[in-house]
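Feature request, filed as a ticket because there's no other form

It would be nice if the structure record came with a short human-readable summary line next to the tokens. Right now we just get the raw output. Example of a typical job, pasted below so the devs can see what we mean:
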Amino acid sequence: MTINKMSGANTHLVKQIEDECFSRPWSLMSIEAELNKPGSCFYVVEKDGEAVGYVGFNMVLDEGYIANLAVRENFRRNGVAKSLLSKVIDIAKENNLAFVTLEVRQSNTAAIALYSEFGFELQGRRKNFYRDPVEDGLILTKFL
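Raw output as currently delivered:
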């Protein structure tokens, strides 16, 4: 398993992961736009030549925002998400960020447990933030 910085050449692989993992996946154009933003850091995990997970992370001033973290279903619970989250936190520390934050569906107990394991704490709730199905988003933050 390797973690590589995402490039324009593998955005289609991330799109496949998006389509598999999210009820409202980003379009290929949205992925490419995010990748090209200043302060954007996207990483892809590959195993045996196949993209199995990715993380999209943006740095703005001294703040870090995880846009998406997704792992293909048949590769979950194998340390892929932990590796990606560790990568983000390392980058955040290297860049002297004050915190890293994200939103997660309130029903995504596996993700919430993972983020909690890394020291993320509940900071707020976004009412009806998600669609398909409509659901609140929890704001989780790790202060560095």
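Something like this underneath would help us a lot:
The longest strand covers residues 50-60.
The first helix runs from residue 11 to 21.
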